[in-house]
Amino acid sequence: STDLSTGPEPPKELVFSNITETSLSVSWTKPKSIVTGFRVTYTNTGNGDNGSISVDSQLSHVLISKLSAGFSYEISVRSILGTIESEPTTASVTTGVKLQAVIPTEITFSSAVISWKAPHLAFRSYRLTYQHDRNSKEVVLNPTVTQYELTDLAAFSNYTVKVDGEREGQYINIVSSAFTTAQVPFPHPTDCSQVQLNGVTESGEVEVYPNGKDGEPAWVYCDMDTDGGGWTVFQRRVDGSTDFFRGWNDYSKGFGFLTAEFWLGNDILHSLTSLTPVTLRIDMQYGNDTAYARYSNFTVASEANHYAITLSGYSGTAGDSMSYHNGCPFSTKDKDPNPLSIHCAKAYMGGWWYKNCYKANLNGLYSTFSQNQGVVWIDWKGKDVSIPFTEMKLRPVSLKRITPQD
Fold first, then answer.
1. CA nearest 231: which of 187, 185, 196, 271?
2. Which of 198, 270, 293, 388 is most buried, judged by most C-beta within 10 A?
3. For residue range 55-74, what is the model confidence (pLDDT) as tens digits?
4. Which runs of E-coded beta strand occur in 36-83?
5. Rounded to a whole number, what is the largest CA-CA distance in the chain?
6. What is the SS3 assignment for 72-93?
7. What string of DSSP letters covers 161-214?
8. Which UniProt keywords apply (predicted)?
9. SS percent in the chain: helix, strand, coil, step 5
10. d(Cα 360, Cα 378) in Å, to the nearest integer?
11. Looking at residues 333-344, what average pLDDT do you find?
């Protein structure tokens, strides 16, 4: 009978390391059986260049040099026993490619422009990956692009960015860099106008510092859509889900839900209107009918002065119902600093700057059309219509916006 001699056992598990533009190391796991050496072959799958290296049986790694940058190579390692070679163990690897550095420029608190020089190699696409903490994002770009603007970044944060080039389905790391975004203009914004200057463009709940960075922070709702945005909303009526017939303490501290119905609180109103000259805006809606009133000057006094309101400079489409209340103290069902024969807050079921008693009653009973107790703006809908949607908001006068004319 003929003795069929099988070849030696092949090596296992090729591992690549120290990959540069022109060289790389390959290592493998030796077979358990005896071998007299190894043969390593490498072929450039792009242009067919190839080579071969003999390795002593004691070793299980070799450095392959004089390779071409940015090409895919097929590497095979065979065990040798005498003159017999094993089956090859094969894997693919791509050499590195050097770009001139990725350069982050035009760095702001929320954006940066990343540029890189195109290498001489033809890539089918670039993949740009940027990371901050554990948050990683990637974009795939066509090969003619060598600049990209990153947006919606976190302020005052460290980012790493790397650019990979894709050839033959494989990504080659071209270059990486790091940068730190700028500090926002207002790390402790006092109101929604500063939140807007920090780059926030969508309406929603935000934490602000009405009494400075060492003061108690407060959550507020910012309207970034109306008349240029930057408005801190302090009152909203929309569905009757929140009771507004409340006592002095509730009106001082605020109540309700910022995304639904609420009163922000007279204490914070005093803080926000004391920092800088403030504009008041009131938006109202009844069916498809909308109206607004603006007052170019608006302040709310301290609690010691009963949160008295000062306003002037009306403009708008709703009619001027608030000027009647100018100079009036705030009153609630349990506290009337300016008692008349009639207790307005009790009679008209709200907390407000009542006089005798009102021309506006935006904290009145929701959807109540009797006894003039509803949500009323007399100069717009009269005293017998309860307005289903109201929003009161403020913004520094210095943030003047031009209201687009229809």
1. 196
2. 293
3. 999 999 999 999 988 888 99
4. 37-44, 50-56, 61-64, 72-81
5. 127
6. EEEEEEEEEECCEECCCEEEEE
7. EEEEEEETTEEEEEEEEEEEPPPPS-SS-SSHHHHHHTT--S-EEEEE-TT-TT
8. Disulfide bond, EGF-like domain, Extracellular matrix, Repeat, Secreted, Signal
9. 10, 40, 50
10. 6
11. 80
Is the separation of the CB atoms in 358 and 379 below 8 Å? no
Give the residue carrying structure tokens 């910022």. 258
CA atoms of 185 and 123, how far apart (whole Å): 40
Q: What is the pLDDT of residues 201-243, one digit of tens each?
A: 999 999 999 999 999 999 999 999 999 999 999 999 999 999 9
Nearest to 312 by CA among 325, 329, 299, 295: 295
**For residues 262 and 281, what is the distance between their CA atoms, to the nearest angstrom?**
16
Quote the Cα angle for 367-373-377, to 5°.
80
What is the arithmetic mean of pLDDT over 119-136? 86
Q: Which residues in the chain are classed under CATH 3.90.215.10? A: 192-396
| Residue for token pair 């080039």 | 165
Short-list 283, 232, 279, CA closest to 258: 232
Task: Dump the DSSP string for 229-257.
Answer: S-EEEEEEESSS-S-----HHHHHH-EE-
CATH pick for 12-95 out of 2.60.40.10, 1.10.10.10, 3.50.30.20, 2.40.40.10: 2.60.40.10
Of 164, 16, 120, nearest to 77 by C-alpha is 16
State the span(s) of the chain assigned CATH 2.60.40.10: 12-95, 102-181
Displacement of CA 312 from its chain's centroid (Å)? 37
Q: What is the predicted pLDDT for the residue at 250?
A: 98
| Lookup: tokens for 61 | 């790694």
Q: Tell me the CATH number of domain 102-181, given options 1.10.10.60, 3.40.50.720, 1.20.1440.20, 2.60.40.10.
A: 2.60.40.10
Joined tokens for residue 69:
């940058």
Residue carrying structure tokens 């509803």: 374
Q: Which of 77, 103, 104 is nearest to 90 (CA)?
A: 77
